[in-house]
């Protein structure tokens, strides 16, 4: 546990700095292109196209296939060197091919996501996409190298490397503002040089973070070389595992496509794609710091236990990680819901835009706790080499998400459309985790979910008065018309103040009721502070 705690603290520290600098990146980006407008949505979609693939690679193909395989290969005499040489050669070839194909299909991809866009907005987004889509290769290599480092218990670099991307982007977007001015949210305000600078900066940041990650490769103790002799790699087994993950990739892209096509109707005057992804970034701040940093070392340990057939230890890992994650995530959910308007002010241009964007953030936050549980459950299936079952419950979630998104497009007006689709995404995620937990219980037997749910219930009861304390702070500071919504920096400070008040009440109540998980949480925080 001490090793897990140290690894969690190192990842959490890197993730915290990465996400904070990521928010600064978003602030500068919004200052350059605006939060609401056709041009801002055109860039956002173009820059998210490669990110969609990265998310699937990191959570699907790479995590589902690579980490369990490396754990298994590491037991060989050469530490898995021969197999990894073949795998990296194959991965590089595939990523180059996928990147080339994506660039050829750039106009089609843009049209898929911008259903209600006019020709000028689509053309601008396509121009951005040609500059951004090379990120597919760098994202893929970043995930491939990073997950290999994680599997070899070198946890820190994968969490810290994205800071380089954020710093380069902050400087680059700041340079764009200095050269061309800010708030260029209209299509007719862009020329080829501006497009090249904005798209080039975005891609340069991703390339730099990948290059930095390679510096830490020597810590794995592996020396790789190009090897095109892929026979003996176990492609049959990998193909079987990756086939379901690839199917999950397609399902995920279909869901994202439908959602973006629906909210494209709001592009221009109301919250749309840029607000959607900015709110998602704020939502991912607690998810990344808490779930990814604590959960990643658990996943490596869980994979080792599963590989050794130690099912009792796996069940203990599941229960312990859910309770530990839940303690942090429930507080984050309560605090951010109360602070949704000042938090939204960080990535919007005015108090009115923040009030319109806040419901989108709240819509995502509904699923923060279920997604933490889903993280543990899904990766348990991966640890056993099962990618078919995750595909099944992901397809179930996708069907619900698509149906509710299409329904929202018929029912809600443009000003509420993006928030409604965010809520529909959360509802589908809740349904997914219920089905996934049931399927895992059928495989492993009792998971101790009763005890875990009881713990989550206790945390929720403590979070209610904590949220009340945060709300009181917000009201005393003027509410929606107060200083917390007067600018981006006041919005960030206000969010931190509300979160701090909620945290004090939350921790105090858990201490009064002698919550056993609090001790584990405090030790993790102490290690994070030391790091």
Automatic annotation (TrEMBL):
Residue stretches spanning the membrane: 20-40, 52-75, 87-110, 122-146, 158-181, 193-217, 238-258, 278-300, 325-344, 356-377, 389-412, 418-440, 461-483, 489-513
* A cellular component annotation (GO) from this entry: plasma membrane
Compartments (UniProt record)? Cell membrane
Give the superkingdom in one word: Bacteria
Give the matching InterPro entries.
Answer: Lipid_II_flippase_MurJ/MviN, MurJ
Topology in the membrane? Multi-pass membrane protein
Q: Which UniProt keywords apply?
A: Cell membrane, Cell shape, Membrane, Peptidoglycan synthesis, Transmembrane, Transmembrane helix
Q: Which GO terms describe its molecular function?
A: lipid-linked peptidoglycan transporter activity
Name the GO terms of the biological process aspect: lipid translocation; peptidoglycan biosynthetic process; regulation of cell shape
Which Pfam families does the record associate with it?
MurJ (PF03023)
Q: What is this protein called?
A: Murein biosynthesis integral membrane protein MurJ
């Amino acid at each position: 546990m001490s090793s897990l705690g140290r690894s969690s603290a190192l990842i959490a520290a890197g993730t915290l700095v990465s996400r904070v600098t990521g928010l600064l990146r978003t602030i500068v980006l919004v200052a350059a292109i605006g939060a609401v407008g056709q041009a801002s949505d055109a860039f956002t979609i173009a820059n998210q196209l490669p990110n969609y693939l990265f998310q699937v690679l990191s959570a699907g193909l790479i995590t589902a296939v690579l980490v369990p395989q490396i754990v298994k290969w590491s037991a060989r005499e050469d530490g898995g060197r021969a197999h990894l040489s073949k795998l990296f050669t194959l991965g590089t070839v595939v990523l180059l091919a996928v990147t080339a194909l994506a660039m050829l299909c750039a106009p089609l991809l843009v049209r898929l996501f911008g259903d209600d866009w006019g020709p000028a907005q689509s053309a601008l987004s396509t121009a951005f996409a040609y500059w951004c889509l090379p990120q597919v290769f760098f994202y893929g290599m970043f995930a491939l190298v990073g997950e290999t480092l994680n599997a070899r218990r070198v946890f820190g670099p994968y969490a810290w490397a994205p800071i380089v991307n954020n710093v380069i982007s902050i400087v680059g977007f700041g340079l764009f503002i200095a050269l061309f001015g800010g708030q260029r949210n209209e299509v007719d305000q862009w020329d080829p040089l501006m497009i090249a600078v904005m798209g080039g900066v975005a891609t340069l940041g991703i390339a730099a973070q990948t290059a930095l990650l390679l510096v830490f490769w020597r810590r794995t103790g592996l020396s790789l070389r190009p090897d095109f002799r892929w026979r003996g790699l176990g492609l049959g087994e990998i193909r079987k595992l990756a086939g379901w993950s690839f199917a999950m990739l397609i399902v995920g892209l279909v869901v994202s496509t439908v959602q973006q096509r629906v909210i494209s109707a709001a592009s221009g005057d109301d919250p749309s794609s840029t607000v959607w992804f900015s709110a998602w970034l704020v939502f991912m701040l607690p998810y990344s710091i808490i779930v990814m940093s604590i959960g990643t070392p658990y996943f490596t340990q869980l994979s080792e236990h599963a590989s050794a057939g130690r099912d009792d230890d796996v069940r203990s890992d599941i229960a312990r990680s859910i309770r530990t994650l839940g303690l942090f995530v429930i507080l984050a959910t309560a605090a951010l819901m109360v602070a949704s308007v000042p938090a939204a002010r960080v990535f919007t241009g005015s108090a009115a835009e923040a009030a319109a964007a806040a419901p989108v953030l709240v819509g995502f936050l509904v699923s923060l706790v279920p997604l933490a549980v889903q993280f543990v459950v899904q990766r348990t299936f991966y640890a056993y080499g099962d990618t078919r079952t995750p595909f099944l419950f992901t397809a179930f979630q996708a069907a619900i998400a698509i149906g509710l998104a299409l329904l929202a497009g018929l029912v809600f007006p443009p000003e509420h459309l993006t928030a409604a689709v965010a809520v529909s995404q959360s509802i589908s995620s809740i349904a997914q985790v219920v089905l996934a937990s049931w399927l895992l219980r059928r495989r492993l037997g009792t998971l101790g979910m009763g005890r875990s749910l009881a713990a989550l219930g206790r945390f929720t009861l403590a979070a209610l008065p904590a949220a009340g304390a945060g709300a009181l702070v917000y009201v005393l500071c003027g509410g929606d018309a107060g200083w917390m919504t007067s600018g981006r920096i006041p919005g960030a400070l206000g969010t931190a103040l509300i979160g701090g008040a909620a945290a004090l009440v939350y921790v105090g109540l858990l201490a009064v009721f002698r919550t056993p998980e609090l001790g584990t949480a405090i030790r993790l925080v102490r290690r994070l502070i030391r790091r």
